[in-house]
Design a protein that fits this description.
two-stranded antiparallel ribbon; 421 residues; 2 strands
Length: 421
Amino acid sequence: MRIAFYVLVALVSGAVTFGLSILIYRLSMRYRLYPRIRERDVHQRPTPRLGGIAMFVGMTAAMGVASLLPAFGLVFAEPGRIIGLGAAAVIMVVVGAADDVWDLDWTVKLAAQVLAAGVLAWQGIQLYTLPIGGQTIVSPYVSLLITVFVVVLVMNAVNFIDGLDGLVAGVAIIAGGVFFVYAYLLQQQAQTEYFNLASLTTAILIGACAGFLPLNRFPARLFMGDAGALLVGLMMAASTISITGRIDSSAATGEKLFTAYFAPAFIPMLLPLAVLVIPLLDFSLAVLRRLRAGKSPFSADRKHLHHRLLDMGHTHPNAVRILYAWTFAASVGVLLYMFVPWWVATIAIGAAFAVCVAVTLAPITRRKARELAAQRGALEDPAARDAAIYDELDVAAAETVDAEEAAAERAGAERTKETGR
């Protein structure tokens, strides 16, 4: 019965986001509120990029409904954290929407991200402990700096993968769903409050992304833009930080190391990385690539993971599904450690990754197979073999080489004779 309250707020978030997305799309098309197509863009027609505003309003409406439900009373008993999350969201949506319209400089966006992360941390959504033996971070200031770094990192990582229709929304739904299950089960095992900020934030995020996805799937009619991508990253970071490091992992020792009960002690270190495996990997590769080229790490290019999948020969929808599959395999694989022995979960992750690799490399495999088939067909065809043997260009080339070698031998013999004289 408790889960019904989370379903309710998710439905409110999704319904408001969906309705407002349709309105924003129609207004944007009527008044031409869309930017020109850039060289690195994948889409071929001008598409509005203000969907993030609809997502923000949907999340705000859902949070308002949750505040009226007695079940979430303990969540709103700490208004500072709610205010901090709301203020950070407003900052990112305003700056993101401005960038979607006027294309702001990256330094302005980075400054806004740092400010939003600072507000979030200052109001209590902060990494007070590390999920390693319940170790407390050295000082509040160090904790503040680490929190700001993590939030900015996640926001940029999510923003970097926002290049294909439905990619960010789908990844957020998959990752958020897995994280919600983890947070819900963790509260059950720890016998603490089921209604907490991490679970509420995740449910609202899932609802908003689900409500936005119908207009964002291929071929997209509306993009979430930087306002939406940065908002999604902020919400994912806030929910992760709200729960990570809040359990005592010091008891996870001895033969109970990977039992179902003690698995949550290790999952806080792995699950945030697993649910963000694609954004963090793409972000890391992009930063290294741009720094190596002597460019700003925030400069734009067309070498992200989704671009590479398209260049390999995948269709737009298939590239999105492949990135969904990687996210699902990594996040669900880590979550399995809560239910099955560690070796079973490890084998399952390995098998899932093997399938993902095979699907990812399928275009290259098919291309190589066609090349080998063509080569074998040429050798088995008598006409093609004879043409290769008696090709006039090959014969002419061979005669030219023979003539050059003969001339070189004659020149060498003459020089020998002259030396002998």
